[in-house]
Amino acid sequence: MKSFNKSQKQRWMTVVFVALLLVLGACNCFKPKTFKIQGRVYGITEQGGEALANATIMLFEPDEVDASVQQLQMDYAGIGASNSWQELFDHRTREPLLKTVADAEGNFTLEGLEKGNYVLVTFLDAWGFRYQTVSIVKEDVTGVQLDLYPVTSLPTVLNEDFSMLEGRVYQAPPGLIQLAGSTLKCKGNAVLLMEEGGEASFHGDLSIEEGASLRIMSKDRIYSSSYSEQAPKRYNQISLHGNHDSEIRKLLLQDCVYGLRVLGVNGLTLVDSRVRPLYTALVVSNSNNVSILNCTVTGSRESSLAALYGENSNHVSISKCHFYLNRNAIFLSNCAESEVRETFFDQNSAMDVHFGENSTGKLEYCSFPNSNLAVYNYKGQIQVHRNEITAKTGIYNYQLRASFSANYNNFDCSVYAVKSKGIFYNSPILHMDATQNYWGTTDTARIDELIYDRNDEDPQDVNYSLLKTVVDYRPFKSQKNTAGIPK
């Protein structure tokens, strides 16, 4: 066996020691450098600002944009609500990365942070809450100022003009009522907190100024630093009885059971707003000339009606909206001369657009990328033109006096592109105009399979004599039409 002398052993040990240092140094080099955020919380009153002790400060990573919304934004600009991250972020929905409590002088420190973008959440009971972004680039972030304002409790009855200001949080009583003749004006980005089961009825005017927003949400767990997988307890609904011939923009409703009800209001335009309910999100009842523009509705589980339900209302216009992850998206009943245009329907599990009894209107330039039933016409008279429809069933025309025309659409349907079972008494055969559509094929045998009408009924059926609708599809297109939401 070869032996080493003392000098060789020393050299060998030196080489091993140096190599070990290099390995340890390399490991240390790969370890990310960490930083800290330091700042102070202030309570702002009419008398000025003072350091606010005992406020909770939590740190989060920003929310990722919902995949459906992200894809929509890439494919179609200007569809749905354009809400900012502050209007969508909710600190109750997940665990914070770090949390601390401000000391007696309002100071706080959060340590051990890698470079990146973060959201600071600050709250203190009776002082509301605040969201603020912080970016760590290459050094510690110091001197961060977090301002909180005292929560303003609203009276049960608002009988005079009232202004909601930037960054403020307002607490509503369980049954808030605004009287006719008064104006509730939102002059900045404000929050209205609602009690569990609470409602608010606005009989006067609700005004949200340009650049402002009103976020209405449940008070439940706003001041809790403990995460729970359970959804916050919900308030009931918001009702509008005034606001004739006016525009409301940037109204954000969450944690609600029934969302917004528009009752007996004429000439209202709801713009750039977002509703996430448990059941119906928007109800338009006995209201004419109502427009829903650039709005987003998601999360509705309503099964008998829809996320947006209109009844006994004429000239309802729904345009450039986004309905996704609802059970049923739109249901219009006894709504004459209504229209749905340039609207995106995504992952609504049961039905997208339902025209009910005595409803008339148009459905144009809409996109249905993955529908179960895209269009259901029950006792209505509708025009379905230039839509992009990928669905199990594209159009289902059913029951007494139900009729339609469908032209220049693109169909990609696995069951039926068009199914028509219109019932008419004392009537000759009625021909439904479904010409100039692209059926995904030029094979007429396959197109016949994609259409269900009187020709497919059993002559022995007791209702056969009443089923009078035949779908005419010639001439048809051999290539796709210009249809769906314009890009």
Weakly predicted, low-confidence segments: none
Q: Please state the overall shape, judged from the principal axes of the Cα atoms.
A: flat
Counting DSSP H or I runs of 4 or more residues, the number of helices is: 4
Tell me the fraction of residues in β-strands, as a range. Answer: over 45%
Count of folded domains: 3
Helical content (DSSP H or I, runs of 4+) = under 10%
- The chain-level mean pLDDT equals 93
| Broad structural category | mainly beta
Question: Keywords, please?
Answer:
21-stranded parallel β-sheet, 487 residues, flat, eight-stranded parallel β-sheet, 3 domains, 46% strand, 4 helices, Immunoglobulin-like, 9% helix, mainly beta
Description:
By secondary structure, the protein is mainly beta. It has three domains: 35-61 and 97-148, Immunoglobulins (Immunoglobulin-like); 67-85 and 151-287 and 296-321; 350-487, no CATH class. 9% of the residues lie in helices and 46% in strands. The chain has a 21-stranded parallel β-sheet that branches. The chain has an eight-stranded parallel β-sheet with strand order 20-22-25-28-31-34-36-38, with no helix packed on it. The chain is flat, with a radius of gyration of 30 Å. The termini are far apart. The model has no long low-confidence stretch (mean pLDDT 93).
